[in-house]
Sequence to fold (492 residues):
Amino acid sequence: MNAQSKKLTVVSDVDCNAVACRNCGICRLGAPLDSTEADSRLLERIAKNRRQIKRGDLLYRIGEPLKAIYAIRYGTIKTYLSTADGRSQITGFHIAGDPLGLADLHDGVCSTEARALENTSLCEIPIDHLQLLTEEIPSLRVQLTQLLSQEVQRLQGLSLLLGKKTAEERLATFLITLSQRFARRGYSSREFNLSMSRNEIGTYLGIVEETVCRTLARFQDDGLIENQRRLISILDADRLAQLAQV
Amino acid sequence: MNAQSKKLTVVSDVDCNAVACRNCGICRLGAPLDSTEADSRLLERIAKNRRQIKRGDLLYRIGEPLKAIYAIRYGTIKTYLSTADGRSQITGFHIAGDPLGLADLHDGVCSTEARALENTSLCEIPIDHLQLLTEEIPSLRVQLTQLLSQEVQRLQGLSLLLGKKTAEERLATFLITLSQRFARRGYSSREFNLSMSRNEIGTYLGIVEETVCRTLARFQDDGLIENQRRLISILDADRLAQLAQV
DNA sequence: CGAGTGGTTGACCACAATCAAGACCCGTGG
DNA sequence: CCACGGGTCTTGATTGTGGTCAACCACTCG
Fold:
């Protein structure tokens, strides 16, 4: 099992840094509890199915048939949906290791639009391929259930944030959550570069750009963070977490 | 397959009306695409596992181990979670046919609290039971994936509502969605009794009780609905749907 | 170096929250 | 049968958080 995961994670340092890939969704999909040698050979086949998209590019759009599910190797993807008159809500910023497209498995139609915030590399599992794979590797279905169930919990948390938290609490939650996600992927939890604009942060948190700016400025005045445009340093994670009301 | 589903749906008219059960989650779980005779016998065993809870009772609470997953036969359950200081957000009103507990499969810990809004009957599948069942009936896992994926989509829609819609649009969306859900279950889509209070509607829609009242009153003045406390009649579904901005 | 994008700050405003009071409804007990 | 009490619903007056509109700043890139 150790040997297997090595085979999967160490692909080539050029297009897959170890940190991203060790935690990448496809590797998590690829290292289920009871995987066998035969499984691992199959999964190598999947892992080869790569896709690169550039900053600003669409991965898929609302209403089109779901062609594949994805796992992000590196980069950032935002997913969003909109009201009839065009107000849109970002439902997630997805980073290395996150799966994409699972929400649309039940009807095979994309319910969100997915766009790259920076150059992004993905593992791609075509839908018809997935059908075969899950038959050959039962544990893959277990993994799908796990990932979907986590996604439901994430969205429940987002609903709490959008329904009940103040602007200040939203921003604090956002920063703490992002920091924790980076930490889990092996990046710094104290200092990081945002790949999204103030506008996009607002569109995710249910507030406007200006409120994001003002609140970040206040956090800086209060010594909670250092705010240099896209570069954020967390100075007082404890107080920030307390503000977040998680 | 027809004979099978008959066996499952027609239990006894006393504790299972046909409408609710034909569409109930356990029956959907119980009538997967490729079910065999053997499967159906197994599923009969599950379907017998019933549970009744009374209005106001807790089904499970946050943090406790997930003992089972459920499907509602009749009644209504609300699920909710809260901020550290006790503001709570209802994440769903679940009616006949809806599954419960799926969101917590990945770590086996309840992430929401579930409480009955009226006397409610559930099918219960204990977690350890589920393990065995999914091994014997592979299509059950497919069903779990489908149901989870639908739940993710539902919560994405809720996020859009909470993040971007006005109070008026929220109420309109709520009424239209509820009406459609009732219709799909075979109840009237034009007139129905709410099982939740104004306060609970607000706690779900991210607004306060008073705003719910005022907005419903306005809808009545505008001839969109008739509003007799818990009894709601939809008078102009089209205009309401337009207001909803779905 | 100038244009353009994204970020910041200020002044003002509006929608919904809060606070408050009263109406309605239903169950319970005298 | 009516009176009482508590919960739910409704309506009104006032307030406040965050939205809107507007101007300016700062960084980047051609």
Confidence is low (pLDDT under 50) at residues 1-24, 30-35 of chain B. Residues 197-199, 209-210, 212-214, 217, 229 of chain B lie near DNA strand D (CB under 10 Å from a C1').
